[in-house]
Give the backbone structure.
Amino acid sequence: MYRFLDGSEQRFAHYGSPLRRWTIRMDLLDEGELAALEQFFVAQGGQYGTFSFTDPFDGTVCPSCSFDTDTGLFEYAGAGGGGAAVTVIRENRN
Amino acid sequence: MLVFPQFVTAASALYPVVKRQRMRSVVNVLGDGTRDVFADNDGALVEWDLYAKGLTAAEWNSVESLYEQVSGSWQTFTFLDPTDNLLADSELLSSAAWTTGALVQLTPGVADPLGTTRATTVTNGGQNTGGVQQTLAVPGSFQYCLSAWVRSSAGSSVTLTAGASTSVVPATAVWNRVVLAAGAGSSAATNVAFGVELPAGGSADLFGLQVEAQLAASDYKMTGGGGVYSQARFAADPLVFTAQGTDVYDALIRIVSPQN
């Protein structure tokens, strides 16, 4: 974006497609669900791997998504009390 | 064998247990927003926060004794992940982690009780008992719980083994989760074999083999590397505990290990 002295602007689209980001908070997970999420995170190598993610708002399947961090936090708190929070981003990747 | 102790409940942690999987990636963000991402598999770590509340003096002393033996965060010990299945490759019975009898045939891809096809048919074609077995580098003094789903249209019984402890259970035509909760039977042992055996000519479908260092089975967890961490350390040199009363101790114990 360029802003000129008269206040006018010129803007150029640079990204191939818009980035999206979902922060997903999961509570009341049982141990099997939490372990499955943890295994998926490890299998992805944190933010290294890419996968398809279904947008929970409109059901669109978004390819080339990844976790946004290398650290996954999983809280085991008894039967049905597990929790985790992950952030998924849709991105352009070479 | 230096190993993080079990408490009097035969578990090595109390809820909640916070577990962090720390991977390591190198990310290069280009001018147009695209990203190059490279994985550094050797840099992956696992961290546990164990919120130990209400420990008895004996339990706390066992933790403190280990802490002194390894000199804080200096040396390593074995940690049995309380949130995971200790067995490696729990659904890949043909992998090198497992030992099968000489005339035991494995047929993977069988329908399992979770609605997928991850079970394995185990057929013992020999004249003696045979099956699948995995030996873990874990102390024989601990309490373990071996669990598995079994099914047999041939009506074979199966024998669960955990070290010197065994249990013979009948297998029916419907899936049934069977459990053997017992001590491994040898306090000096540093390896314990867990497995399922079939009688001569027997055949059964197996799924979800799981070993946990506790008294009862929890939800099944599929594994790759398994939950035995032989290179674990205390995450920091200080180890702080609070005495809440007579024989009541609280502590936050942080443990870190390279990923299996």
Observations:
- The first strand of chain B starts at residue 17 and ends at 22.
- Chain B has two domains: 17-83+228-258, 99-212.
- Residues 17-83+228-258 of chain B form one domain.
- Chain B has a mean pLDDT of 93.
